[in-house]
Amino acid sequence: xxxxxxEVGETGIVKEFTxxxxxxxxxxxxxxxxxxxxxxxxxxxxxxxxxxxxxYQLSLRKFEASTIILQ
Length: 71
What we know:
single chain; about 70 residues; alpha+beta; SH3 type barrels; 5-stranded antiparallel β-sheet; 2 helices; 5 strands; globular; Fe-transptr_FeoA-like; transition metal ion binding; iron
């Protein structure tokens, strides 16, 4: 399952990434393997997605969220 498939309020644990370039950017923002992420809000048209990770909120595009594989 990927982060983009979660609904508001659902949580998951980051397992790995599908895009090497994007993974570097996401890890710099706190989306490290083993971190718990929770979907806080989804924009009316589905893009972007606000998530809670490492104690703060982060906004990701749906494409970026689809590169994060959860446990």
